[in-house]
Amino acid sequence: MNRVDYLRISLIDRCNFQCQYCMPEGADLAYVQRQDILTQDELLRLIREVFIPCGFTRFRLTGGEPLLRPDVVQIVGAIARLPQTQDLAMTTNGFRLAEMAQDLYDAGLRRINISLDSLDASIFDTIIGNKGKTRWQQVWSGIQTAYTVGFDPLKLNVVVVPGVNDHEVLDLAALSIERAWHVRFIEFMPIGNAGLFGDRGWVSSEELRQRIRARWGLSEGEVRGNGPADVFQIPGAKGTLGFISQMSECFCDRCNRMRLSADGWLRPCLLNESGQIDLKTLLREGRSLHDARQAVQHLLDIKPDINFKERDPGTEGIYNRTMSQIGG
Ligand code: SAM
Ligand code: SF4
Asked: If you placed Cys at 10, which of 119, 147, 300, 327 could pair as Cys (CB 3.0 to 4.6 Å)?
């Protein structure tokens, strides 16, 4: 079992996109009330006084869409300045990146993952659920700006949905050839409000690798990430190809992370809520942070027994949650 030192922090559960596989239009999502979202002070206090003492040193800001949070640049700066922070990254849909990339970089963010499921503006708009407005160009400019500003590594996340964008896998993989862009193919998880895509099934990473191998060949890359991706490289490419295979493989024994939701719940696993802790209530009731550290330490101790596939009875409901609610 890996050392658990990586925390994925959801800054907000809302989003400006309505991705079919996450929060499709019309879905009945229970959003967190504004007053229940951890404030910047609460979040930073938890990081400094609970998570760092419990051994967390690597942080990823996500959501919902993290760039919708008005104080995101200040939060980035504050976490980046902590001497114990060894790694700080963000996952974003990229829509606001063209205007914000420089400020985020100046605040200390260096690693960024941007979701880009299609190179075709109309398929992209179908996926993100946009009625009549084309947003692909804005996201593409965000990616270009982030690259120019100097984000490294710059990763592009692609959720592959059969019959929707799987025919673009070679074109998307080719983005890793000329520039040091790291393209990561994520197996679609039919959880939550999977919208129009709910019954499309998923394409396995191995099938995608076979297609890419047949076109260019595929060597195992030298860059291995911190996370669950298996990393490969097209021979001679500047970037890499990552495959996240949560449907076809179980990588629980490699798991090094926990998730903090926007309303302060610490969860040990993407799809298993056993032992989750309500840190916001603990903070707001003025309880000692010693209690919080003890609770987190206990969750760390039991995490090896908490498994993605062998869930506790009674936790099935989490399958009805979307990634934006879990804190993807
Ligand atoms: N809004 C940001 C974004 O889209 O990059 C960050 C949050 S989003 C929930 C994080 C990641 O989860 C994205 O790469 C998204 O594509 C992925 N995701 C969301 N729902 C998914 C699903 N049902 N299956 C697989 N990946 C999913
Ligand atoms: Fe928003 Fe990201 Fe979910 Fe898409 S995947 S709806 S961009 S939170």
From this structure: 327
Residue pair 181/310 in contact (Cβ under 8 Å)? The answer is no
Residues 94-115: what's their mean pLDDT?
Answer: 98
With the most atoms of ligand 1 within 8 angstroms of its CB, the residue from 8, 17, 91, 244 to mutate is 91
**Ligand nearest, relative to CA of residue 328:** 1
pLDDT on residue 321: 64
Within 10 angstroms of residue 327's Cβ, the number of other Cβ atoms is 24
Where are the domains positioned within the chain?
6-326
Judge if the beta carbon of residue 54 lies within 6 A of ligand 1. no
Minimum mean pLDDT range among 103-112, 153-162, 248-257 = 248-257
Q: Which atom of ligand 1 is nearest to the CA of 114?
A: 5
Does the global pTM surpass 0.70? yes
Ligand closest to CA 114: 1
- Report whether residue 62 contacts ligand 1, using a CB cutoff of 6 Å: yes
DSSP state of 272: B
Where residue 223 falls among pLDDT bands split at 50, 70, 90? low
Q: Could you give phi then psi for residue 89, rounded to 5 degrees? A: -140, 170
CATH superfamily of 6-326: Aldolase class I (3.20.20.70)
Residue 172 structure tokens? 């998307």
Please name which of 143, 135, 141, 188 lies closest in space to residue 16, comparing C-alpha atoms: 135
Q: How far is 279 from 5, CA to CA, in rounded Å? A: 18
Residues whose CB falls within 8 Å of the CB of residue 60, separated by 6 or more in sequence, listed in order: 6, 7, 8, 9, 88, 89, 90, 91
Give the pLDDT band of residue 146 (cuts 50, 70, 90): very high
**Distance in angstroms (rounded) separating the CA atoms of residues 204 and 187:** 6
Q: For ligand 1, say whether the CB of 61 is within 6 Å of any of its atoms.
A: no
- pLDDT for 311 equals 46
Q: What pLDDT is recorded for position 200?
A: 77
- 286 Cβ contact list (under 8 Å, min separation 6): none
